[in-house]
């Protein structure tokens, strides 16, 4: 589920890049691939064993996605971009709420932190999408506030991860998060520059670099939490919790790592 939240923001970013006719990293190809990937992930989720409440929540975010998806299958239209930004922002909030419900229901210690790391990956794409839309000429009087809010959210997430017990978020991960925070702040400075000079290709490069670092951190955090499940839980409970763990975050690496 956390991956679906993130992919929605990647698709939004690529939609804007295609609209601006930016070819760096082939956003047109990535957009089509990620649309298919979300469909595959929803299909995979349908086969999971979850309680009625969680199943209903998953059905809700799938239905919501299906109402947004058709716009991303059309030729990018600048006049639609502002509404898409707001729709994906609202969708992402609900999507991560479901991911947190799944994490809580799993009763796996530390799974909440896996969701938080995944959320950092999403924020890198959201920041890029906001900036690229701005560079495209999409008017939003709240733009600067949106960028500041993203950086504030990132700082809050990193603080929570950094304050966590070392057995749930390792010292190595905490050190890597310092670099992530610096890169986000640099990106935010570029995004709020008043020079009037826009660099969408540079924004995509920065977002991809951030994403690769976060991907590596996410893999480490998943290994740490999965290890805690195996070490501390009886086998029957481990199987139950592990099933929900895979629904919440396991699909993030189903394709052999998150692609940038």
Explained architecture:
This protein has 260 residues and is mainly alpha-helical. The protein is built from 9 helices and no strands. The protein has helices at residues 2-19, 27-46, 52-72, 78-106, 111-136, 143-163, 171-191, 200-232, 235-248. Helix 1 runs antiparallel to helix 2. The chain starts with a helix and ends in a 12-residue tail after the last helix. The model is unreliable at 231-242 and 250-260 (pLDDT under 50).
Percentage of β-strand residues: under 5%
The succession of helices and strands, N to C, reads: HHHHHHHHH
How would you sum up the global shape? globular
Question: Which residues form runs of ≥5 with pLDDT under 50?
Answer: 231-242, 250-260
| Overall number of strands | 0
Query: How would you characterize the largest beta sheet?
Result: none
Structural class: mainly alpha
| Average pLDDT over all residues | 88
- Specify the number of helices: 9
Give the distance, in angstroms, between the N- and C-terminal Cα atoms.
Answer: 18 Å
Rg of Cα set: 18 Å
Fold topology:
Elements: H1 2-19, H2 27-46, H3 52-72, H4 78-106, H5 111-136, H6 143-163, H7 171-191, H8 200-232, H9 235-248
Features:
260 residues, mainly alpha, 9 helices, 0% strand, disordered C terminus
In short:
The chain has 260 residues and is mainly α. The chain has helices at residues 2-19, 27-46, 52-72, 78-106, 111-136, 143-163, 171-191, 200-232, 235-248.
């Amino acid at each position: 589920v956390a991956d679906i939240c993130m992919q929605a923001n990647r698709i939004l970013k690529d939609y804007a890049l295609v609209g601006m006719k930016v070819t760096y990293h082939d956003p047109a190809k990535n957009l089509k691939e990620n649309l298919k990937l979300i469909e595959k992930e929803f299909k995979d989720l349908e086969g999971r064993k979850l309680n009625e409440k969680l199943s209903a929540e998953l059905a809700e975010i799938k239905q919501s996605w299906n109402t947004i998806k058709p716009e991303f299958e059309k030729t990018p239209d600048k006049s639609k971009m502002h509404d898409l930004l707001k729709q994906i922002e609202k969708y992402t909030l609900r999507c991560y709420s479901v991911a947190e419900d799944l994490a809580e229901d799993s009763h796996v210690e530390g799974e909440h932190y896996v969701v938080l790391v995944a959320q950092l990956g999403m924020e890198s794409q959201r920041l890029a999408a906001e900036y690229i839309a701005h560079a495209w000429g999409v008017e939003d009087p709240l733009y600067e506030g949106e960028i500041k809010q993203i950086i504030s959210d990132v700082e809050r997430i990193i603080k929570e991860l950094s304050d966590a017990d070392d057995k749930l978020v390792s010292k190595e991960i905490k050190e890597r998060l310092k670099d992530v925070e610096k890169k986000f702040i640099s990106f935010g400075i570029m995004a709020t520059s008043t020079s009037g000079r826009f660099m969408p290709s540079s924004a995509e490069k920065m977002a991809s670099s951030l994403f690769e670092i976060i991907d590596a951190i996410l893999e480490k955090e998943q290994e740490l939490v999965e290890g805690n499940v195996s070490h501390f839980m009886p086998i029957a409970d481990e199987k139950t919790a592990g099933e929900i763990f895979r629904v919440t975050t396991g699909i993030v690496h189903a394709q052999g790592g998150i692609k940038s």
